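fyi for ur records
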Amino acid sequence: MSYRSRKENKTYSRYTKNVQKAGVCEFCDIKEGDEGFVKELTYFKVIYNKFPYTFFDYHKITDHLLVIPKKHTDTISSFTADEALEYTQLVGDYEAKGYDVFSRAPSSKQKSVPHQHTHLIKPVGKEIKTMIYTKKPFIRVVH
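which gave:
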């Protein structure tokens, strides 16, 4: 489960609506020197998520990165053998540093950018025992 604070989610929703209206892929244009750019490999880029999750799997988040293929695609299954190897090595390196790895399917209703991207999420601290999450028309209380 991933969540942003209410304020962060409003900002994120406005941003994604504007990007979708413009009909551009925000990930295709990211390059070295841009704000949030971390590193570039042969087939992939790593960036900071502009709208990081506040919580993931009932833990606070200390770092939230995205792995983005340079070619525009919406599926991992479209990677060539060389791309798949680089992807696996890159994700494995971050996994070894304590990052959780998360990606949504192209058909997911939660996926807001139609360019494949994998979340690298670094949790911190103890599991949150109580969280109240409200979203019309539901209220979720987690113990």
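Residues 2-142 form a domain with the HIT family, subunit A fold (CATH 3.30.428.10). thats all i got for now
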